[in-house]
Each structure stands twice: as structure tokens, then as C-alpha cells.
Specification:
This protein is an all-alpha fold. The protein is built from 16 helices and no strands.
Length: about 425
């Protein structure tokens, strides 16, 4: 791939203009991604349920998430540097197309009736590797194409559409899976990937606007120097405590989402429709949160985001203590979690997009994602293994209680809100 064309001009933190933005082009890319997300959501639901029925094992479900995350953790720090050096549009085109080809390979195995669990796990791993390249490039093009003072609103709108699609995904996945075969569902993934490729081909992505950063080599920086610079930037600008806190939070909450199908099936005696109901209500909560973000042009602050982490753990605790078969109460917990996660996800991404220079976005987003997710695969295997010997009910109670303690530590001992003061001193708040 060719190095991405860049501009030599700089801008200060007060600058609200960006002459190279291409908002209509971003909306077209966005539309293609929405369609792709719908296809991937349907397929992801079908694959997880297929693994649940084929294995009946908490370890296999944890392993499915593990193999999807490991490539991201390993490749992530390096792919971010490449996202800043290569053409981001070509990265997105290549990864979408190659994921479609990998899915076709699995379809063939289903057709000839030779598919095994490890084949499905392999596809999940391959997709994880491609997403390690796609994620930093995809997030990084937002500040290139969207005016700076509208980034939060655009992220909120994106969350609205994404969660509306995710509300439909489990429902459609369950309906299609009941009426058809998983090999047919996989074709949905292929088609939607190709639609995303087509919309990308039609759009011109503006070049990166560069501004001065103390440790950046301004002329022909090496891969190594850019890689090292990323960690230096996170450390010197006070982002590491926040990232470490979210890393621990992910360890405590994400494995429980991976085990949710088995939790509903074995503990609450539910089936695929009950799983779809709880997951769907979770997405409704996220949709409501995203609407509020878009309408208010939510200005994210670190302390606010940490507060929503606390609320999310309370919602998880509701799911944990719900009586057997009380799926409506579990759905309430899912609603609270989804609402909170909308503010957490949009808030963290928007903070980074606004306060970090564009030429560092690929590296910062990939390294941030890697640091947050790095211990998650081990935690998934560890908790999944424990669940083979310890009742799921106990695990579902202990993890959210530890999450509440984590938030208390970050606020009262870690003084995480001090980052808000640093950010307030270095940049202005985007206007509505």
C-alpha cells in the first residue's frame, strides 16, 4: 500500500474549521457500513448459537471470543502505525473484501458437510485479524471527513444507527436460523461486505491535517519511532490511568456477555428467542443513549464516562440476581447496561478524536484498544474455565461487585477526574 498523502499545514487547538472535510462522503461510507453491520450482526448471532448447540460448553464460548480478540491484541499496536502511514481507504477496502472471501470459505465447508467447531473458530480469528487493521483506519477517518465541532453528534448518530441495526440483528438471526440453515445466513455477510466495499470505492477521503506534536519526527519518521512515540504520548498526556481502568472493567464485564447464551439456557432455562429478547433490549438501551448524545451534542468528560461505567455494573448486577425465568427483569438490566455503554463508547472515542492530533489517530486508537483488550482473552479463558466447575450464578454476582469497587478506586483514590482538568487547559469545548 502507498503512504497516505498528508498536508504540511498545522492548526492550533482553537481552530474550529477544517476545509478538507467531506461530510456527504462520510455519510455514504456510513450507509455502507450500516448495511455491513447488519449482515455481520445476523451472522455473529447465528454462529454463537450454533457453537452453543454444538458444544454446550462455557469453555468453547469463551474460546470463540478469545480467538477473535487475540489477533487484535497481537496485531493492534502495529496496525495503528500502518493506518497512519498507509492509505486508510485502501485498508478499509482490502479488509472488507478479504473478510468476504474468508466467509465464502466457511460456506463451502458447510455445503460439503465437513465443517467442525475449529473451522468456525478459525473464521472468527481471521476476521479478528482483519478488524485489527480496519478498526484504527475506520475511526481515524471521522476527524478527516467530519467538522471538529460536530464529531460528538456524528458519533452519536452513528451509535443510533448501529444500535438500531443491532436490535434487529438478534431477532432476524433467530428467525432466519429457525427457517433456514447457517450456510444461507453466511451469504448475508458476504453480500453486505461487498456493499460496504462499493460505497468506499465511490468516496474520496480527504488527506490528514497535521499539527505539531512534540515527539513526532517531522521528516520521514521510521516505523519504530512512530511505534514508540505512541506509548510516550499516552503516558506523558495522562491517558494511561483511564485506559488501565477500562482494561480492568472489560475483564470484569465482557466475559459475562460471552457466557450469556449459556447463562440463559442453563440457569434460566431459556432458548434462542429469550436470548434475542435480552440482547435486543440491551440494544434498545444503547439506542436511547445514542439519541440523547446526538440531540444534545454530548460533550464527553472523563468523570462522566466513569460514572456511566458504575451504572453499567449496576445493570449487570440486576441480570445476575434476577430470579430464574424472569427475562423481563434481566432485560431491564440489559437496558441499563446498553444506555450506559452508549455514553461510554461515544465518550471515549470522541475524547480521543477531539484531543489527539489526526496524524496520531491510527496509532492511538489501535494501542488504546489493545491495552484495553490485552488481558481480556486470558480473562475469558480463565473465567470460562472456572465456569466449568463453579456455578455461573456466583460468577455473575462477583464480577459486577468487583466492578463497583473498581469505579470507587478510580474516583476516590486514582483521582481519574484530574485528566478533565488537563484536557480543559489544552483545548476548547466544541460548539453546538
Amino acid at each position: 500500500m502507498e503512504p497516505e498523502t498528508s498536508m504540511n499545514s498545522t492548526f492550533d487547538n482553537q481552530d474550529q474549521s477544517n476545509d478538507t472535510t467531506n461530510l456527504p462522503g462520510y455519510i455514504l461510507i456510513w450507509a455502507g457500513q450500516i448495511i455491513s453491520i447488519l449482515g455481520s450482526g445476523i451472522v455473529q448471532f447465528a454462529i454463537i448459537w450454533w457453537l452453543t448447540e454444538e458444544s454446550g460448553s462455557t469453555f468453547v464460548l469463551a474460546l470463540a471470543t478469545f480467538v477473535g480478540l487475540v489477533p487484535m491484541v497481537i496485531i493492534g499496536p502495529f496496525s495503528g502505525v500502518l493506518a497512519d502511514r498507509w492509505n486508510r481507504k485502501k485498508i478499509l477496502l482490502s479488509t472488507d473484501f478479504l473478510q468476504a472471501l474468508a466467509t465464502i470459505g466457511l460456506i463451502v465447508l458447510f455445503w460439503i458437510d465437513l465443517v467442525e467447531i475449529w473451522h468456525v473458530l478459525l473464521l472468527i480469528a481471521i476476521r479478528g485479524a482483519f478488524q485489527a487493521f480496519q478498526m484504527p483506519a475506520s475511526i481515524s477517518i471521522v476527524p478527516q471527513m467530519v467538522p471538529k465541532n460536530q464529531i460528538s453528534r456524528i458519533n452519536g448518530l452513528g451509535q443510533i444507527f448501529n444500535n438500531f441495526i443491532f436490535i434487529l440483528s438478534p431477532v432476524l438471526g433467530a428467525i432466519i436460523l429457525e427457517a433456514s440453515s447457517i450456510s444461507i445466513i453466511l451469504w448475508i455477510d458476504v453480500i453486505t461486505f461487498l456493499i460496504a466495499v462499493f460505497t468506499l470505492i465511490l468516496v474520496t477521503i480527504p488527506p490528514v491535517i497535521r499539527r505539531s506534536v512534540e515527539s513526532v519526527e517531522t521528516k520521514n519518521p521510521s516505523f519504530k519511532s512512530q511505534f514508540v512515540e505512541t506509548f510516550d504520548y499516552l503516558k506523558t498526556h495522562g491517558w494511561l490511568p483511564l485506559i488501565i481502568g477500562f482494561t480492568i472493567g472489560n475483564i470484569l464485564i465482557n466475559p459475562l456477555f460471552s457466557l450469556l447464551p449459556l447463562f440463559i439456557k442453563e440457569v434460566h432455562l431459556g432458548g434462542v428467542l429469550e436470548l434475542a429478547f435480552v440482547v435486543g433490549i440491551f440494544q434498545v438501551g444503547s439506542l436511547i443513549g445514542a439519541v440523547l448524545i446526538a440531540v444534545s451534542n454530548f460533550t464527553p468528560k472523563v468523570i462522566t464516562i466513569v460514572g456511566f461505567v458504575f451504572i453499567a455494573f449496576l445493570g449487570l448486577l440486576v441480570i445476575s440476581i434476577a430470579p430464574v425465568g424472569e427475562f423481563e427483569l434481566m432485560a431491564v438490566g440489559g437496558l441499563v447496561i446498553g444506555f450506559s455503554i452508549a455514553f461510554i463508547d461515544v465518550g471515549v472515542v470522541t475524547l480521543l478524536q477531539i484531543h489527539i492530533p489526526q496524524e496520531l489517530h491510527g496509532r492511538i486508537f489501535s494501542v488504546t484498544f489493545t491495552l484495553i483488550k490485552s488481558l481480556l482473552p486470558i480473562a475469558l479463558l480463565f473465567i470460562g474455565g472456572i465456569a466449568e466447575f463453579v456455578a455461573l450464578e456466583i460468577i455473575y454476582i462477583v464480577c459486577p461487585l468487583l466492578g463497583v469497587l473498581l469505579v470507587g478506586y478510580l474516583v476516590f483514590i486514582g483521582n481519574i477526574s484530574s485528566l478533565d482538568k488537563k484536557l480543559g487547559e489544552s483545548t476548547t469545548t466544541p460548539s453546538v
